[in-house]
């Protein structure tokens, strides 16, 4: 079998999006010299240096409160060069606070380490950190043209006019607004304004681009288009992006890695597929859109299959998380996606649960039917919207489609 492609390979290519002349460059360059001249020891040192160079942002143990509200509770975050990282979480979980701390707009109460390309930025004012933020509400200057807005960040950095103009044109080309250089802001649509705000940030060639719900004000069609555009821009520039969103769909679509936040702390961080398929807590399961999360007690684990007692019923699933915590009798959750439940006849080894179909809701592409079952209310998704639930008296699901993990005290509904 051919080896799997490394999904980060494209990120490691050198970015065509280089710093401006005179712009502070925080990254240390890799040492020179061909491989033939290097000793093993030297190679080891270079490997370490190269790993350090890949690490753009390194935050260890950040805490921040607003009065009695703990907005960040011991948050540590490492972001690699060229990574598209998303901070995901419900309202008030601390995403924007973390972004503001990175930008220097908020001083954390305490932080053990906060480095950009290995340089301590803890006490560095925002204008001396090479990061840029795109906000939901654009924050463009209405009295300036598109081009003047895009050049703004470079003007205050005293970049010469011809270099400014070239950088602004390059950034406007990236967001497909080359022809609008002289337009006034009020002559633009909402989507175009957001692209100008993006171009303004890109023009400064930041070490990290911070995106604070940048698509939140756009209508759905535009939002979906801009998601694809942002992915493309990240790929073309090789930049490091940190996005804040409360939309799991947006996070899954756009990210290399998702950091799921809850009440100021990191709940789980993983690539989108892992977070989607293997949420480690009931909160993560619910937030990632798992329709069916039931709770029970662990009866035992045999041959890698967890048996969960829910009332008088036992269902089997895939155990995840710390095996030491998965002792018989432990409170656990079982999470099953609606599309993994079936009304059809069960395959061998599947869980079968009796009950009564309830209301079917037509969703266009699929049909969601509620099902009052022996393990609690469930939702069953069918892609064949014509078929319906009929008078089915049971649903089935495979143990591998049911994630079983320890139920935390604060996850008890
Ligand atoms: N300036 C402030 N003064 C007081 N409390 C604040 C301030 N900013 C944020 N908070 C509180 O800190 C907590 C974290 O807020 P934060 O804005 O970081 O969350 P968020 O996840 O970005 O939420 P949202 O998605 O609603 O923007 C919340 O409880 C919020 O009410």
TrEMBL record:
One of its GO terms (molecular function) is ATP binding. It comes from the Bacteria. Keywords: ATP-binding, Nucleotide-binding, Transport. Residues 57-288 form the ABC transporter domain. Residues 1-40 are annotated as: Disordered. GO terms for biological process: quaternary ammonium group transport. SMART domains: AAA (SM00382). Belongs to the ABC transporter superfamily. This is Putative spermidine/putrescine transport system ATP-binding protein.
């Amino acid at each position: 079998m051919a080896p799997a492609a490394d999904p980060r390979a494209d990120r490691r290519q050198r970015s065509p999006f280089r710093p401006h002349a005179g712009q502070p460059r925080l990254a240390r360059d890799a040492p020179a010299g061909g491989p033939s001249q290097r000793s093993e020891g030297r190679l080891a040192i270079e490997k370490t240096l190269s790993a350090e160079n890949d690490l753009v942002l390194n935050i260890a143990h950040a805490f921040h409160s607003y009065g009695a509200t703990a907005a960040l509770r011991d948050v540590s975050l490492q972001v690699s060069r060229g990574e598209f990282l998303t901070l995901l979480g419900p309202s008030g979980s601390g995403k924007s606070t973390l972004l503001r701390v990175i930008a220097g707009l908020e001083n954390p109460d305490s932080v053990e380490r906060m480095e950009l390309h290995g340089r301590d930025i803890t006490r560095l004012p925002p204008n001396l950190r090479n990061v840029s933020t795109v906000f939901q509400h654009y924050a463009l200057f209405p009295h300036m043209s598109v081009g003047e807005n895009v050049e703004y960040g470079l003007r205050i950095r005293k970049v010469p006019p011809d270099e400014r103009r070239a950088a602004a044109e390059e950034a406007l080309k990236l967001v497909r607004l080359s022809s609008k250089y002289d337009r006034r802001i009020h002559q633009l649509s909402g989507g175009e304004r957001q692209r100008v705000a993006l171009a303004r940030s890109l023009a400064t060639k930041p070490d990290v681009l911070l995106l604070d719900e940048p698509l939140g004000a756009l209508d759905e069609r535009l939002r979906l288009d801009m998601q694809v555009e942002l992915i493309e821009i990240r790929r073309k520039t090789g930049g490091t992006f940190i996005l804040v969103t409360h939309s799991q769909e947006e996070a899954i679509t756009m990210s290399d890695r998702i950091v799921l936040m809850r009440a100021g702390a990191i709940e789980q961080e993983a690539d989108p597929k892992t977070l989607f398929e293997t949420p480690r807590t009931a909160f993560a399961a619910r937030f990632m859109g798992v329709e069916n999360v039931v709770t029970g007690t662990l009866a035992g684990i045999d041959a890698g299959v967890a048996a969960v007692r829910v009332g008088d019923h036992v269902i089997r699933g895939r155990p995840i998380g710390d095996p030491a915590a998965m002792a018989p009798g432990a409170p656990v959750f079982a999470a099953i996606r609606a599309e993994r439940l079936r009304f059809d006849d069960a395959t061998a080894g599947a869980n079968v649960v009796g009950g009564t179909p309830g209301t079917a809701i037509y969703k266009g592409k699929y049909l969601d039917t509620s099902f009052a079952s022996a393990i609690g209310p469930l939702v069953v998704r069918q892609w064949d919207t014509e078929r319906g639930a009929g008078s089915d008296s049971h649903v089935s699901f495979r143990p591998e489609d049911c994630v079983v993990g320890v139920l935390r005290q604060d996850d008890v509904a």
